[in-house]
Structures are given as structure tokens and as C-alpha cells.
Write a structure and sequence with these properties.
- It is built from six helices and 17 strands.
- 23% of the residues lie in helices and 16% in strands.
- By secondary structure, the protein is α+β, with helices and mostly antiparallel strands.
- It is flat and about 70 Å long.
- It has helices at 42-54, 77-83, 88-106, 132-138, 170-177, 230-235, and strands at 15-16, 31-33, 39-40, 60-61, 65-66, 69-70, 74-75, 109-111, 118-120, 128-130, 143-145, 180-181, 191-192, 194-196, 203-205, 212-214, 221-223.
Length: 262
């Protein structure tokens, strides 16, 4: 008979005598094999995963080159925590960032300026928000602007601004004032250097060598020139992936897409 809890035990670490698939180092040390089959050492794994968190990624994936292609397999946080031998301080840092990102990406929370409780916005296109806690605890109907976080001023529920002085969408200001640039490796000229991801609305500055960008928030790849999802943009070019975009250059965006998460 198996001991109690045997099925719930984590698999033992597998050590191999191979190069580091993250850094390419080939010194004479044993390395741990990840679930995707690639090998690394704790320091390399920690540094890579920390860089993903610093870029705003919520998931950990393998960057190893496998026969000219990126491995890309996802690692669970428990696997990363164990194989990277994270210290208590490192665990706390990782988990605080993961919790923060999860709350931001999967929910829409802000602090009520009246009672200081966190409020979730149900209608993602409505800036006029009612704090349920203010009503429950004090019997007051307190409405505030999701954009400027001031008591709501004005009638209706516009999607761009309330009537408080200075209420404006900071992201739209960035999009309106961003510089233009020529995209490297293509014939695309005077493209806005900052775009809002067409899927989730996250602002992304173009620093790549290609017109296609993978959004670090929703992980959807899109064309920086025409703002189409990559597969749709590529379909218009007859399989010529590296040629310039065949669709018209999208102008500076004047609206932020709302991420309709399922």
C-alpha cells in the first residue's frame, strides 16, 4: 500500500549534464531539467523569470532555442519556485507581483475616493461608477469618475470623460502625442511609435525589429502598422511574412480597446 499523500507529492528533481538552455553556458556543472525538457541552473531561471515579471508578464515560459525555434512551453509558478530555489524574500517578491498583475489583468479594480474600499467596475465602457460599499455602510449614493477618481460631475455616462476640470484619459494623451517612426525591416514610414493593443488596450512602445508585436498582457500577436491580429494581417500578404504590411497604415488611435475577457 502506498503511503498517504503519495500521489500528491511533487516529482523528484531531474539533474542532467548538459548546457544551460537559457543562457547557452556550457561549463561543467549539473543542471535541473524543466518540465519542457530544457535544462538550466537556479540563477539563470530566477533571472529569466524576474525579467518576465519586470516586463509585466503574468506567465512564465521557456525561452530556449530548439532547432531554430523558441520552445515557449509554459512553466507553473510552483515549478519555477522549486527549481529556481527561490529564497523567502524572492518568493515574496514574485508572489506580490503575480497577485498585483492578476488583480489588474483579470479584474477592473480601483479605490473609491470616498470610503477607500476597492470597487470593481462591471460596465467596462462606463466611467460613471457607483460605490456599493458607500451605499451599504452609509446609505449614501456615491458616484465617482473611473478616469479622474473624483466625485462624478455631469449628466449621463460618457465613455471619454466626466465634466471635472482636467479629466482626461492619460493613455489617449500618450497615443495622441507619441512620435512617428519608420518600422525597421519594412517600407512602413511614419508609424506611431506607441500603440494600444487592439485586444486588451495595453500601451506598447515599438522597440522590436519586426512589425509584429506580442502583447505582454494578453499574449496576442498583432501588426503594429495596420493593428490587425497577426494571422489576419499575414493572410492578406499571401504567406510573405516578412514583407511590409499590405493594409493601410492605421492612424494614431483615439480610443482604447476594452479587453472583453471570458
Amino acid at each position: 500500500m502506498e503511503p498517504p499523500g503519495k500521489d500528491n507529492e511533487e516529482p523528484e528533481l531531474t539533474f542532467v549534464h548538459r548546457k544551460d538552455d537559457i543562457t547557452g553556458d556550457d561549463d561543467d556543472v549539473m543542471r535541473v531539467e524543466m518540465s519542457c525538457g530544457q535544462a538550466t541552473v537556479p540563477a539563470s531561471l530566477t533571472a529569466w523569470c524576474r525579467s518576465l515579471l519586470d516586463q509585466g508578464h503574468l506567465r512564465f515560459h521557456c525561452p530556449a532555442d530548439v532547432n531554430g525555434e523558441k520552445c515557449g512551453k509554459e512553466w507553473s509558478y510552483p515549478e519555477v519556485r522549486r527549481n529556481a530555489l527561490l529564497t523567502e524574500t524572492e518568493q515574496q517578491n514574485f508572489e506580490e507581483k503575480l497577485a498585483k498583475f492578476a488583480a489588474k489583468y483579470y479584474h477592473d479594480f480601483k479605490e473609491c475616493p470616498n470610503c477607500k474600499s476597492f470597487v470593481e467596475r462591471r460596465d467596462l465602457k462606463n466611467l460613471r461608477v457607483v460605490c456599493i460599499l458607500c451605499h451599504s455602510l452609509k446609505g449614501d449614493v456615491f458616484e465617482f469618475c473611473w478616469q479622474c477618481l473624483k466625485p462624478w460631475k455631469g449628466a449621463g455616462a460618457p465613455s471619454e470623460r466626466c465634466e471635472n476640470e482636467g479629466c482626461k484619459h492619460q493613455s489617449l494623451e500618450v497615443l495622441a502625442n507619441c512620435k512617428l517612426k519608420d518600422l525597421p525591416g519594412s517600407e512602413i514610414k511614419n508609424c506611431p511609435s506607441v500603440r494600444a493593443c487592439p485586444t486588451c488596450g495595453r500601451l506598447i512602445e515599438h522597440i522590436e525589429k519586426c512589425e509584429y508585436i506580442v502583447c505582454p498582457q494578453c499574449q496576442v500577436e498583432f501588426c503594429f502598422a495596420c493593428l490587425e491580429i497577426a494571422r489576419n494581417c499575414q493572410a492578406s500578404k499571401g504567406g510573405a511574412y516578412f514583407k511590409y504590411c499590405a493594409k493601410p497604415l492605421a492612424p494614431k488611435q483615439t480610443q482604447i480597446p476594452v479587453w472583453a475577457q471570458k
